[in-house]
Specification:
Nuclear Transport Factor 2, Chain: A, Lipocalin, alpha+beta, single chain, about 425 residues, 3 domains, 4-stranded antiparallel sheet, 18 strands, 8-stranded antiparallel sheet, Zinc ribbon domain-containing protein, Zinc_ribbon_dom
């Protein structure tokens, strides 16, 4: 109904007791009569149509809101699909370390760790994703912060920046790297766990095994939590041979992305000398000839080069430091030569069997005599590098009556193979 005040006349509620606009009181049945008059003038179909239209509008609004909400949802899968083409092509540098393979990293996979809203922007999301890249040694995990925005119903990447990086081992240390670092292990033992020989004297493994050691990796568990590796080590030191094991313990350094040596433990027998490596036949390779040219003006004879000596160690007494050997060598039996010769009449190969000789393992890099006959003398030298050498001196009586070596041949000895021939170097 309308306000009965002639100066107002505004539409008010049918059951109003006063006009909210002018304050006029509504008395009597005026309000009801007015309402009845108004009701008579409103067609029923119009009211029904208005209700239907209002319901349709509300449905459209609700549908639109729900559709927008559904479209703006960002799942982990969609985030990965959006970001992965870029993450796969990122150039991530591997850490530089002593124990790592120097190979490029390859993309492995990505995982979303969080998705958060942007304040007052329903069409934008902040995504934290972790991507893994690895080679044979290390896995590098990079955390990226990415901003994604919704455009034409599809999510797009706006910016994607690295915010953190971690390292983890992806496999064991390569055997080749372990073998290359054996001197480092020796030095660690010398510094942290000095070892002693059978007499209780401190021994340096760096000096005892030198550079001519042989090494083999027998166990490599460096890819596990309790990382360790065990190597067999052997070497000739003069005429002595040594063998033992070293066990290296490692710990992964998260900050540097590399392994660190924690400890190196040698086996108890690593300093025990053995002479069994001498057993067998050794054949000489000629490397020098010497004669007293300054006195007799003799030319050289290379008969020893064409007939190298052999020495066969048949048994060794390690307590007495003696050995039973067979020796075969060329002895010069000719007079002076006007010109150098590959051989000369009178050269003769002599053999001595079951000869008892004395070994002097501590006399390194020095010659000492092991056998003597009227016409010749035999010397051997054991080098600190493990090389066995032999020197054959052919004796002669000088005009003064003094015996002297007038021709000397020098040989480097190498173990012969099963056929009795020296192996190829």
């Amino acid at each position: 109904m309308r306000c009965p005040n002639p100066t107002c006349g505004k539409q008010i509620a049918d059951n109003a007791s006063f006009c909210p606009y002018c304050g006029c009181k509504i008395v009597g049945e005026g309000k009801d009569l007015d309402a009845k008059k108004r009701k008579k003038h409103v067609p029923r179909p119009f009211v029904i149509g208005a209700a239907i239209a209002a319901a349709a509008i509300i449905a459209v609004i609700v549908f639109g809101i729900s559709r927008i909400a559904a479209t703006s949802e960002l799942s982990d899968e969609i985030a990965i699909q959006t970001l992965e083409p870029d993450l796969m092509t990122r150039e991530v540098e591997p850490p530089v370390g002593t124990w790592l393979a120097g190979e490029p990293l390859e993309y492995v996979s990505s995982e979303v760790t969080s998705i958060s809203d942007v304040y007052n922007a329903a069409d934008r999301k902040v995504v934290i994703v972790e991507s893994a890249y690895e080679n044979a040694s290390v896995t590098v995990t990079v955390a990226y912060e990415a901003v994604l925005y919704l455009e034409d119903g599809a999510w797009q990447s706006d910016v994607c920046s690295p915010v953190d990086q971690t390292y983890a081992p992806s496999g064991p240390i390569a055997n080749e790297l372990l073998l290359d670092r054996v001197p480092t292990f020796f030095q660690f033992i010398d510094d942290e766990h000095p070892v002693a020989d059978s007499d209780g004297n401190e021994v340096s493994l760096m000096e005892l095994y030198g550079e001519n050691f042989q090494a083999e990796v027998v166990e490599n568990a460096t890819g596990e939590s309790d990382a360790s590796a065990t190597l067999n080590i052997s070497a000739m030191h003069g005429i002595s041979s040594y063998a033992g094991e070293i066990t290296v313990s490692f710990d992964w350094d998260d900050e540097s992305g590399d392994w660190a040596i924690i400890d190196v433990e040698p086996s108890d027998d690593i300093t025990l000398a053995s002479f069994e490596g001498l057993l067998g036949t050794w054949t000489g390779e000629f490397y020098e000839e010497d004669h007293i040219e300054s006195i007799y003006h003799f030319a050289a004879c290379y008969g020893g080069r064409n007939n190298p000596p052999t020495i066969t160690f048949k048994s060794i007494d390690e307590q007495a430091m003696s050995a039973v050997v067979d020796i075969s060598c060329l002895v010069h039996g000719h007079e002076s030569l006007e010109n150098p010769s590959e051989t000369a009449e009178g050269d003769e190969v002599l053999t001595a069997t079951d000869v008892l000789i004395t070994l002097e393992p501590d006399q390194l890099d020095d010659w000492y005599q092991v056998y003597e006959q009227e016409r010749y003398r035999v010397f051997i030298q054991t080098g600190s590098d493990g090389t066995l050498r032999m020197r054959i001196e052919t004796m002669s009586i000088h005009d003064t009556g003094r015996e002297q070596a007038w021709r000397t041949d020098y040989f480097t000895m190498a173990r012969s193979n099963a056929s009795g021939e020296a192996p190829e170097v």
